[in-house]
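Protein modeling request. Please complete all fields; requests missing the sequence field cannot be processed.
Requester role: graduate student
Desired output: 3D structure, token encoding
Chains: 1
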Amino acid sequence: MSKSVGNVINPYDLVEKYGTDATRYMLLRHVHPTEDTDVTWERLDEWYTANLVNGLGNLVARVMKLAEEHLSSSVEEIEKTKSDALVGAQLEKFEFNRALDSIWERIGHNDALMAIEKPFLGIKSDDVGVREESLLIIRKMLRELHAIATDLEPFMPATSAAIKEAVRNNKKPENLFPRLTPIA
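Delivered output (184 residues):
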């Protein structure tokens, strides 16, 4: 972006299109604080869709749907979840992009766990042991979501609060990050 060239993206336009938390996320994770960064609307759309809609938003929706349908209450002792020490250390050094990279690595790990363990299939099994194992995985995933939300709080406070509320209430939230509507 260059003021002289006239290709500056207005921050108010970012917030209008993506929302405050998503804008904070994209600027803190993908825009270097001291060096030039190539930022275009296309790149912003890619970051939003890949990391927020298909990443965090999809994981929260999938886990909370399973929890809502198959657990009678939220996981006990969930409030004792602590922040990741690595994220805290990176935050103290003002390495916001690295802290967010660590959080997204955890999101990816949990997404992979969901794909590998397939609790959404095991929960429907006739085998009681398989069903119980799936319930354990769902409970673990709820604790992970709460931990992720705890780590996200300084970066995306509204998103963090929405995830924590969903876990506490054992209820799938509305889409955290709506899909972008294509321009006709």
